[in-house]
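Milestone M4 deliverable, item 7.
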Amino acid sequence: MTVVVALGDSLTCGEGVGVRVRPEDTWVALLARALPAGRLVRLAVPGARVADVRTGQLPLVPGGADIATLLVGLNDVARSGFDAAAVGAEILETVAALRSRADDVLLGRLHDAGALLPLPARVAQATRRRIEEVNAAVDEAARSSGVRVLDLRLVPVLARPGGWSVDRVHPSPAGHHGMAAAAMEALRGAGRQPGRPIGEVVEPRGSSRRARGWWAVRHGLPYAARHVRELGGPIASAVLRRC
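Output delivered:
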């Protein structure tokens, strides 16, 4: 049996604001099914920040796991009061703890989350800078033995509209499939071999302007209104421009 423990946020569990990928179609589920006698332990939850993973998910990781996956940081990036040093320290501490509980750790590097969004230039630059700071901590943690990296910037489908859900923040089923394939390839470097292929998936053309407009009115605007102080004015306002 190959036990895979999945930690993180909505990029792993597949549940966003007004978007949802079936649990069995998430990248960690596809990865677990591809591994010999794979069993998935789901700990990732929507909205989790790095500190939430360390305090709420890490204690639930069973000892003797084969693989622990950690993809987190985007919620920290999107919130006001972002502290790069604190986030980086939390990542390093979490990865160190995971290395003592799992044979292999698969650590995710964030993509440029603002690339598909019509963000104001100042917000886009700040978002990109924060992501680079999170990724710098990931790179430092990845220098430890037993740590492999899943770099979302290198997943081909995520460079195309069809890799994303209507909100253009969360991966579509095709995006999750691409992430699973990249994750399996990263784990080959640790000597992990698939028991069966991940399979094929049809990549859609991407959401229409009308669909994005419906999402913004039905889900994006209410969410931004509820979280305007957390997100900060510029990011909350940018939600309205996604259509």
